Amino acid sequence: MVYPGSFKKLIEVLCRFPGVGPKTAQRLAFYLLGLAREDVVAIARAMVEAKDKLGYCAVCGSLAEMESCSYCSDPGRDQATLCIVQEARDVLVLERTGQYRGLYHVLHGALSPLDGIGPEELKLDRLEKRIAEKVISEVIIATNPNVEGDATAGYLARLLKPHSVRVTRIAFGLPVGGDIEYADDLTLSRALDGRREM
Amino acid sequence: MVYPGSFKKLIEVLCRFPGVGPKTAQRLAFYLLGLAREDVVAIARAMVEAKDKLGYCAVCGSLAEMESCSYCSDPGRDQATLCIVQEARDVLVLERTGQYRGLYHVLHGALSPLDGIGPEELKLDRLEKRIAEKVISEVIIATNPNVEGDATAGYLARLLKPHSVRVTRIAFGLPVGGDIEYADDLTLSRALDGRREM
Q: How far apart are CA A16 and CA B39, in angstroms?
């Protein structure tokens, strides 16, 4: 097929996006061609600008435009509660609930011996130091409910026990609005384990 | 939720893409942040470059980097056959089959009185002129198999009849690899209409 050179190149770069195959890339490319030039430039600029400005908070590892993120530098947040998540995007998801008002710690990964990711790669010594230095009363572990997330949560619980801090993990169970009939066995069994007085 | 400014802006522009909602946009944004700066710049540059270089062929309306597209300027193509399509992307789809070796004519739309798109908006006079000037023996209509596409095909057939040119429309029927059981009524009835001796 004879694609014009710059079109072929555009398709190629769009294909690199996660979840974008050749067909979606072509649709996105035609969408871009249909825009005014200034709009295409605005999109291009927003990408490079975000890449240039954004980094990770030196303290907690969440997405930040400055050295310190908006969570760490907010005195109104509960300084005694720390929520540990795997990725910076998980912070945004938790923030969306509007329920959590404590601090964060982003691991940027999970323990995975097969991928060569151990406690050192996750810089858990920095986390320990942070907990030792600050007056943290509760650590909430919010790693993913899968093998790596479970292993990481278990490791963290053992690691943090000597620091006389309350260590909890977010609950597993039926998703709200879900139907017991369609729940998978593992979720249902975790929901039973986690049952509460009412 | 407190999003860093440049991240919020990136999400906003990515959300404008067709089929991209806030969640996908966030995933794409984090993917971009994970790339090296030069890769982000390369993506941004490919977008603007494609927008700057690409236009539509002055003759047939397909995607082109120069005044004349690679189809119109290829003397090896069958100059006596013209395929009429709705959009420039349809040309790429037909080219992918590798079966068609004639010329194209892109309408950039279909007749749709409700949207105010009539024969003038599709510049059908230019198409008529093209057919009158060139020695075209067959016009293949490849508009979409829906109300607008059908209306356009019917209009074109009437319009081109006086030009003593063979006017055909691509076939409708069961998709290859499909299952009769799952075919919708309309497709099946069209497939029956279009049955051929074997």
A: 10
Residues 6+ apart with CB under 8 A from A36: none
Yes or no, beta carbons of A70 and B2 under 8 Å apart: yes
- This complex has an ipTM of 0.80
Provide the total of helices (H) and of strands (E) in chain A, helices listed first.
7, 6
Range from A183-187, B97-101, B104-108, B154-158 carrying the lowest mean pLDDT: A183-187
Contacts of residue A162, Cβ cutoff 8 Å, sequence gap at least 6: none
Domains of chain A in start order, with CATH, are 5-53 (1.10.8.420), 76-170 (3.40.1360.10)
pTM value is: 0.77
Q: A residues 85-124 near B, CB within 8 Å? A: 87-89, 92, 95-96, 98
Facing B7 at nearest CB: one of A40, A41, A63: A63
Residues in B 48-77 with any Cβ partner in A closer than 8 A: 48-54, 63-65, 70-71
Element (H, E) at B80: strand B78-85
| Nearest residue on chain A to B68, alpha-carbon basis | A4
Q: What is the pLDDT of residues A60-106, one digit of tens each?
A: 999 998 878 889 999 999 999 999 999 999 998 898 888 999 999 99
Contacts A–B by Cβ distance under 8 A: 152
End-to-end CA distance of chain A: 66
Residues 6+ apart with CB under 8 A from A5: B53, B65
